[in-house]
Design goal:
single chain, 544 residues, alpha+beta, 3-stranded antiparallel sheet, 18 helices, 13 strands, 12% strand
Length: 544
Amino acid sequence: MNLVTDPWLPVTNSKNQLCYISLNQLFEQPDEWLDLVLRPHERVSVMRFLICLVQAALDGPEEENDWDDAIEIIPEYTLEYLKHWRKNFYIFEDDIPESEENISPFLQIRSLKPGNDTTSGPSITKLDSSLAVGENASTLFDHGAACEITGYSIDREMTDSQIIISLITFLNYSPSGTQSSAKLGGVLIKHNSGATDSPCVNQNMLHTFVVKRSLVRTIHANLIDKETCEDFFGKNSWGKPVWEIAEPKSIDDEQAKQNAVVTYLGRLVPLSRFCKLKKESKYFVYCKGFEYSTKPKKKTDSKKVYRDFLPEPSTTIILSSENDYSVLKAGNNVPWREISALTAKRSKGTEGGALPLKFLSRGESLDIIVLGQIRDPENVAKVLDLVESKVHIPAFMLDSRNRQVYEANIKLCDQKSYQLFKAIEKYRASVDDDWKKILKRFSERETRPSDRKARDIFRKKATHYYWTLIEKQRHLLMQYISLLGTESDQAREESKKAWLNAINSAVDETYRTLCNQDSPRQLRAYVTGWQILHPSKSEHQEAA
């Protein structure tokens, strides 16, 4: 099977039907295919591959002024590129023609051997993190795995399309820790030697992509030019896709490692694990690959920060209160609460959103898709959830002043959320003696890990309803911001008042919904918590 000529990529066509297409088909009919049909972590990984492919075909754009015109030449240049490099896109070694004996299968190490001659290697399903394989893998996305628990064996089979997508995703999202073992160049790479996170998984990072009316236009909207690449990642940082470079001869192969780890194109499709597939086999060979820098440095290292820490182009960089760089994480907040950070233009050595946003006109609205994977903090190999959110950004939200106002209002909502949590917590402590003991340990600085975990869970549950109500009224905030800078003074003040009233109503409704008043004790607790929300009003008025 060859990615260039055989169908494997799941997309929707102009009639919103699911189709599987080859890379040739994608670029032969650039306006026919609307979007990818993939799960969040798969979409991130395949988008990175398609971006890498197109950037390599264009060998650019050279500079920012060439970016707009690139959309017209992408199909022609990419088809020509695929024609030239087609031999490098075979999935299985058995499919490679004998005349191409020096060619490696796509994203694989042809000379890789099993670490133990008596074993066939791990199951091919390990490539798919949503399947329950081994003790760390959850059945959250794999209900069929329950059959094994009850004593019924389940023989999973992966199609070639699933194998391709899972391989690309595995290289981007494989977590740190113990890996399988394999031999390369006669040297055993041990299973317990450990491996670092693949580039896209560290810190539960969120990835942002601009979305356009067709898949090819979406790819174009997420390209960067060579000058931008050099600004952010240093001189000679453009690099080549890993399939253009000879396969590594060892784990310390400096030439292959330098291109794969440090350069822009090399990192887009990483070699974080060395793999080799076998046609029609339920097993594959793999071990740890090259190590990728994923942890931020302090802002004081501004001259080195983008060399030592190479933030992925699709991530959003933020600055912590300790003056450290970090990435916006999945699971902290829903993306609409982070619009200000997501849409900020990133400058060298500063925080900001995805790099391709710099090419977008400030006079046009846009759609972005925000994606991520949430891991268990106590077991990073375990996936807890996947995040996907499509957000429409009106043109007025691309103005820096308007973003500041939006951010200030989201902070106001956060403050109200914390106040609401304290009120609900006060209510609970008045009706739940065990919770009262937990709060006492907090006040006396004698908290246990279980206390902190229980309080975090309680806070999320206590404020979830509030944030749901706020999201339903977010249009009032957007309406208010759209009137900033206009002469509609009365309309602006009325919309601002409506938005602030919506916040207060969400607080009160959440408190009333979650805090019962069925018994005298509950009623007294209700009044105690209500005073935190409305300290200036009498108990009698508010309880009534």
